[in-house]
Amino acid sequence: MSESRQPKATVYARIIEHIFFTHYEPGAEEVVFDRSEIASAARSLGVDVPKNVGDSIYSFRYRQELPAAIRNAAPPGKAWVIAPAGRSRYKFAAVQPVEIKPNPAYAETKIPDATPGIIEMYASGDEQALLAKLRYNRLLDVFTGVACYSLQSHLRTTVGGCQIETDELYVGVDRRGAHYVFPVQAKAAKERLGIVQIQQDFDMCMVRFPGLICRPIGAQFMEKDLIALFAFEQGSEGRLMVCAEKHYRLVSSENLSPEELATYRDHPFG
Q1: For 83-119, what is each residue's pLDDT tens digit?
Q2: Are the C-beta atoms of residues 134 and 114 closer than 8 Å to each other?
Q3: Pairing mode, if any, of strands 179-187 and 213-214?
Q4: Residues 138, 107: contact at Cβ < 8 Å?
Q5: Mean pLDDT of the chain
Q6: Is residue 236 very low, low, confident or very high in pLDDT (cuts 50, 70, 90)?
Q7: What SS3 state is found at 148?
Q8: Higher-confidence residue: 189 or 4?
Q9: DSSP state of 236
Q10: Domains of the chain and CATH, by start
Q11: 268 exposure class (CB count in 10 Å sphere: 0-12, 13-18, 19+)
């Protein structure tokens, strides 16, 4: 197979590995690089420069594993993640590994589907469809026990010199009157929620909403109408932790039996 006809994933892997080992020194816990190096690395390797330079970084943050050679260079007990390091700059950072993916052993909770039919007709199964289903079915309210309201979609801001993006931002109030901010990151079924994005949501909340309780939310399609929701908190030494996970299946009213409703009624309230 010619250099120019290699699969996109293979080209991305060769480029990112070339960049990493250009800067890596044994024992390092950070490896910084510029976005512009993607094009120069491609030319050095004799492969086509990716048409979407950003996708070559995005893919390793949320869709696929880093090449084995990079993973094996991580310090003991840690794993590499790619994080922003300033405008048009990124870094490989060695962190305690946190895998965020739905637990298939968790029970499903059925929710009557309130998604408008016209939305269903044109939804594509991506993060926008997921955000719409969260909104129309008030799944954040159900999941958190807080009355939630969408404040802004696709928030882009700069924190600590790094540009960050949040898919949707909710604010809420609980029965005590306490106020919350819920930054939401949404992923399609084949994508992965990343700890870097969740950590950036914490940082954004500290800067923009210091007086509110910050609870980042991760949402992911497991199937077309099966949605996993995660809530996060910061543990000791600021380590990111999953504090709640629930799976919600959106169904028509005919598919929710009296027996199932009785089961939900008998669950402990909380």
Answers
A1: 888 888 999 999 887 789 999 999 999 999 999 999 9
A2: no
A3: parallel
A4: no
A5: 90
A6: low
A7: strand
A8: 189
A9: G
A10: 3-95 (1.10.10), 108-266 (3.40.1350)
A11: exposed
